[in-house]
Amino acid sequence: MERAIFAGGCFWCMVQPFDELPGIHSIMSGYTAGHVENPTYEQVCSHTTGHTEAVEIIFDPELISFKDLVEIYWQQTDPTDAFGQFEDRGDNYRPVIFYFNEEQKKIAEASKQALQDSGRFTKPIVTSIEPAHPFYPAELYHQDYYKKNPANFERNHARREAFLKENW
């Protein structure tokens, strides 16, 4: 198994696109890239921990590649918005592809360049590509949120969904 960590705004919205793909062993919502160990949701939302909301994906590279996951990731985000995603604003919602090794870094960078070169977006692609940091699982009520709270999830997901339909 391998790991991937992606930040793309609210972690509630980042679980569902990957959740039932072949080769996905698990997806966990959590926090990464900050300076506080085991932060709480309230601490992260205070913008004082440096963390961003993210999802950690454990996957079988024999069934789905990191490259495939990166391609799916792009199609869940606005890669031209560095200071949040859709309704979710601030540093804790910034878009980031975290890598665990040089191969993942090369894949992410090549994919980002290909997206920039494609002309799909007129603005620059600003999603960060950074080394992985410790990942701290979010509280249990955040895990599988889209399944537990479908009505609230749909409300929070509406603007994202409209963007994705228009641009992807």
Summarize the helices and strands and which ones pair or pack.
Elements: E1 2-7, H1 11-19, E2 24-32, H2 41-45, E3 52-59, H3 66-74, E4 84-85, E5 88-89, E6 96-99, H4 102-118, E7 128-131, E8 135-137, H5 145-148, H6 150-167
Parallel strand pairs: 6-7
Antiparallel strand pairs: 1-3, 1-6, 2-3, 2-8, 4-5
Helix pairs in contact: 3-4
Pairing-aware structural class of the strands and helices?
alpha+beta
Give the oligomeric state.
Answer: single chain
User: Superfamily at the CATH H level?
Assistant: Peptide methionine sulphoxide reductase MsrA
CATH class: Alpha Beta
How would a crystallographer describe the biggest sheet?
6 strands, mixed
Strand order of the biggest β-sheet: 7-6-1-3-2-8
| Rg (C-alpha, Å) | 15 Å
CATH domain topology:
Peptide Methionine Sulfoxide Reductase, Chain A
What global shape is seen? globular
User: Count of DSSP helices?
Assistant: 6
- Tell me the span between the first and last alpha carbons: 29 Å
- The CATH architecture category equals 2-Layer Sandwich
Whole-number total of structural domains:
1
Family: Belongs to the MsrA Met sulfoxide reductase family.
GO molecular function, one term: peptide-methionine (S)-S-oxide reductase activity
Pfam family, one: PMSR
Keywords: Oxidoreductase
Brief summary:
This protein has 168 residues and is of the alpha+beta class. The protein has six helices and eight strands; from the N terminus they run βαβαβαβββαββαα.
